Amino acid sequence: xxxxxxxxxxxxxxxxxxxxxxxxxxxxxxxxxxxxxxxxxxxxxxxxxxxxxxxxxxxxxxxxxxxxxxxxxxxxxxxxxxxxxxxxxxxxxxxxxxxxxxxxxxxxxxxxxxxxxxxxxxxxxxxxxxxxxxxxxxxxxxxxxxxxxxxxxxxxxxxx
Length: 160
Known about the structure:
Blueprint: E1 2-9, H1 15-28, E2 32-39, H2 50-67, E3 73-83, H3 86-99, E4 103-108, H4 116-120, E5 124-127, H5 135-154
Parallel strand pairs: 1-2, 1-4, 3-4, 3-5
Helix pairs in contact: 1-5, 3-5
């Protein structure tokens, strides 16, 4: 079974986000072995300097990198990433299952994004949209898109 790991900076606090995550994790159970890992977001002052932000991202990067499963294809979510359609994401997941290790790790940063160190390790830099979303919502949206990708691959009517 394909393994999907989602590493996310920050914790889900709101019950509605937790419920949505739980629902998509349940749905994905029939398609993949899903593991969700939360990394602590480093605390910053209310108006941090660029140096403080870089230092926090670097600390988060160390923790993120230590959690990436060996041999996993890495996909980072970042604003400068490429926009993929649901069908294209489905193809990425299917190609990985057919030709790779079958392991994919998606990484979502916190409010200030991800360190370039983490992004440099990724095979794909993925953008969810040209719009800005809270990273907690992006987490739920990504899980839905992964579920949709598996549904597309299975040829079901969910995608229509």
